[in-house]
Amino acid sequence: MKILVCISKTPDTTSRIAFKDNNTKFDDAGVQWIINPYDEWYALVRAIELKEKDAQVIIHLITVGGPDCDPVIRKALALGGDLATRVNSTDSDSFNIASQIAAVAKTEKYDLIMTGKETIDFNSSSVGAMISELLEYPFVSLATKFDLNNDIATITREIEGGEETVELKLPMVISCQKGMAEQRIPNMRGIMSARTKPLNVVEPISVAATTEYLNFSMPPAKAGVKLVPADQVAELVRLLHEEAKVI
Description:
The chain is α/β, with parallel strands linked by helices. It has one domain: 3-Layer(aba) Sandwich (Rossmann fold), CATH 3.40.50. It contains 6 helices and 13 strands. A 9-stranded mixed beta sheet has the order 11-10-9-12-8-1-6-7-13, sandwiched between helices. It has a two-stranded antiparallel sheet with strand order 2-5. Strands 3-4 form a two-stranded antiparallel sheet. Helix 2 (about 70-80) crosses helix 5. The longest helix has 17 residues, at about 35-55.
């Protein structure tokens, strides 16, 4: 079985967020980049677990981005990927990213394509569904559990108010979230072997842009907290009546 795991590069959650060029572009100066946690902790690790159960499983990785993505994809190789492909495009449009991944996937005919449920920077949760549509594969989103019996997958996913369990025949696309697997740390053997694993760079196909980012802005600063001494109950009641706002 061949699995394709989609990997994206995202800023570390502790990074300083700022914008440049009149707030039209993200300022990546000094930003620490990491593998998108949903891609790494859940999609990739679950694929690795499947390979540990069946040595015939092959794990390919794919990312869409420039050369600055190489350290991130190398870390994914160190965790357990067998081969990686980087599509040399810096366009962050979701449809473009999905189209590039689908174009590569069509040449390899993967049995299973796994993504994280979303990236922690754009939070659009759209790429997996777009890939499935472009490939005409079934799609299951928000998956928390994935089991495989030959070519039949049993998947548990979150729905409003509960969970749903479905069975589907491969090939398919799933987006993964918390519950799918547990985070792993690359060991020294994986780190050393990642240096020699193939990382292929391919040029992007032509895709018409579907979105344009006009500007970015920071959320408004939080208002200060007004403290009332414990012995001034009347003042607290007055503030709750006159100044407190229900949001």
